[in-house]
Amino acid sequence: MKRTKIAVLVSGGGTNLQAILDASARGELPHAEIALVLSNHKKAYALERAAAAGVPTAVVTKKQAGSQAAFEAAMMAELVKYGIEMIVMAGFMSILTRDFTDQWTERMINIHPSLLPAFGGEGCYGLHVHEMALSRGVKVTGATVHFVNEIPDGGKIIAQKAVNVEPGDTPERLQRRVMEQAEWIILPQAVEQVAAELAHREDDLNV
Ligand code: GRF
Questions:
Q1: What is the pLDDT of residue 55?
Q2: Is the CB of 155 under 6 A from ligand 1?
Q3: SS3 content of the chain, % helix, strand, coil (to 5)
Q4: 152: Cβ below 6 Å to ligand 1?
């Protein structure tokens, strides 16, 4: 059976990466091979999680690259080096331009901590998303996995899961609940779904 080679792009703590690694260790991602973890921050804790799981890591920073174009080219060089066929953005805090995203159409997915299209787009990241949801007074929020295109949080939706807002929620409490009840569940599932689709497409091409 063909397995799709995946790079997970990270910037921070990497709890979503951990959810993917754990699902893979449990045998729940039979069509996915986590082949690389790529960070745009040298000190991202996610890199330690990858190393502990025996997954190769690479770091590419915008500062070192000098420009957005050079940054994206350096990322692409790492992805090619590891034979990557699919990208998972799991808390990757850098916007990629169309030059990059066009090369990964329907091969790059992202997890976003709201029910898109609510609370998405430029500036809607991390804790801000939950602050916005609370100040608007929504009673239900959640997480979305979507394909990545040139519009921030604008690609086609693959999976969503709703999470209730509880009385007295702070952005931090809500963030944690959305991660536990939605992100860590739907991201590994979506990784397997898209990886399987790509693997089958590849099989069809080879017959
Ligand atoms: C998550 O809330 C994710 O939805 C958002 O950034 C956060 C990353 O957390 N895009 P982690 O690094 O996976 O712990």
A1: 98
A2: no
A3: 45, 20, 35
A4: no
* Positions in the chain whose pLDDT score sits under 50: none
Report the percent of the chain where pLDDT is more than 90: 94
Write down the domain spans for the chain. Answer: 4-206
Q: Which of 31, 41, 112, 130 is catalytic?
A: 112
Contact 84, 56 (CB under 8 A): no
Query: Ligand 1: distance of its center to the CA of 91 in Å?
Result: 4
Strand order across the beta sheet in which 140-147 lies: 57-59, 32-39, 4-10, 86-89, 108-112, 140-147, 157-164
Tell me the per-residue pLDDT of 99-121, one tens digit each, with 9 for 90 and over.
999 999 999 999 999 999 999 99
Q: For residue 180, what are its two tokens? A: 């536990």
The CATH code of domain 4-206 reads: 3.40.50.170
Residue 112 among the catalytic residues:
yes
Main-chain phi, psi angles of 36, to 5 degrees: -160, 140
